[in-house]
């Protein structure tokens, strides 16, 4: 087993451990790295050094669990555990000291028995099960996830800067030359999800993954976002970017990669621009 993404040769790889893939490395291009450098080089450097204040959010953890349950059910069963409701572990008006102690003991015993696993509370686990069922029953999305290979790691060299690049495909369906990317969301309607694309820079992800495919000779005709809502009825929708969105994704990714290359070369990591800038209220205010 490799210890670093840098130990892998350029190409397509299966079964790369998530911890190995996601570990930050100086100058290695990924969607996360581009998001950090896009905010500012200082934010990228703090993330690289492990000193950034941003912690893994509940939304990110939920999304990771959904991905795993949908695309790698065996790994989900092995690595996640559904935590029961242990009740109050402190004495309250409704919980006696003895009951609180018993609840705490049951909680600690459960944690010991499931050490090393990711805990999921019952509500989140139920939602994830509903989402997975909704995707599988969807007339189009269900067909998309029945074929193909999940969690392919792609590594290549950016021809313009020489930087190492990596991406991790949720699902690749060779027979349809399609990359499928699953997204959990609160609202999968067209108008709402297009805002998600802009906010979370999914168009940059589209561009980076298409670039990987071109560099490695992988046929890709479609990049499909599979959006599934987190709450009942767990509605599902599928989208592809239009030509303008794809082009803007390439432009944004290129600018971020070039900025990262410059910062790595000079070892200079500035924050936000210096100076007083006029700011206006947003249109909706």
Question: What is the fold's blueprint, element by element?
Answer:
Layout: E1 11-13, H1 18-22, H2 31-39, H3 41-49, H4 58-71, H5 73-79, E2 80-83, H6 97-113, E3 118-121, H7 122-137, H8 141-146, E4 149-157, E5 164-173, E6 178-185, H9 190-200, H10 202-216, E7 222-229, E8 236-239, H11 243-266
Parallel strand pairs: 2-3, 6-7
Antiparallel strand pairs: 1-4, 4-5, 5-6, 7-8
Helix pairs in contact: 2-3, 2-11, 4-5, 4-7, 10-11
Please tell me about this protein's structure.
Helix content is 47%, strand content 18%. It has 285 residues and is α/β, with parallel strands linked by helices. The protein has a six-stranded mixed β-sheet, with helices on both faces. A two-stranded parallel sheet has the order 2-3. Strand 4 and strand 5 (164-173) form a beta hairpin. Helix 4 packs across helix 7. The radius of gyration is 21 Å and the shape is globular.
């Amino acid at each position: 087993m490799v210890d670093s993404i840098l130990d892998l040769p350029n190409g397509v790889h299966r079964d790369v451990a998530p911890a190995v893939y996601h570990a930050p490395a100086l100058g290695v291009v990924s969607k996360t790295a581009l998001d950090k450098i896009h905010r500012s080089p200082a934010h990228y450097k703090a993330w690289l050094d492990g000193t950034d204040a941003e912690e893994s959010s509940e939304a990110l953890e939920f999304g990771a669990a959904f991905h795993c349950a949908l695309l790698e059910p065996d790994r989900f069963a092995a690595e996640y555990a559904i935590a029961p409701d242990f009740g109050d572990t402190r004495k309250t008006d409704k919980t006696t000291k003895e009951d609180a102690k018993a609840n705490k003991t049951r909680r600690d015993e459960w944690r010991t028995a499931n050490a090393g696993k990711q805990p999921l509370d019952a509500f989140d686990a139920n939602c994830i099960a509903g989402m997975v069922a909704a995707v599988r029953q969807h007339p189009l999305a269900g067909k998309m996830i029945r074929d193909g290979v999940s969690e392919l790691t792609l590594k290549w060299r950016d021809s313009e800067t020489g930087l190492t690049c990596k991406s991790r495909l949720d699902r690749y369906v060779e027979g349809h030359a399609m990359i499928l990317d699953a997204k959990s969301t609160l609202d999968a309607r067209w108008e709402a999800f297009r805002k998600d694309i802009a906010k979370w820079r999914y168009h940059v992800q589209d561009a980076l993954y298409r670039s990987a495919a071109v560099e490695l000779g992988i046929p890709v005709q479609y990049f499909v976002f599979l959006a599934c809502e987190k709450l009942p009825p767990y509605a599902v929708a599928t989208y592809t970017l239009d030509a303008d969105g794809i082009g803007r994704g390439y432009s944004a990714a290129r600018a971020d990669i070039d900025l990262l290359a410059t910062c790595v070369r000079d070892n200079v990591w500035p924050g936000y621009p210096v100076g007083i800038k006029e700011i206006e209220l947003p249109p909706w205010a």
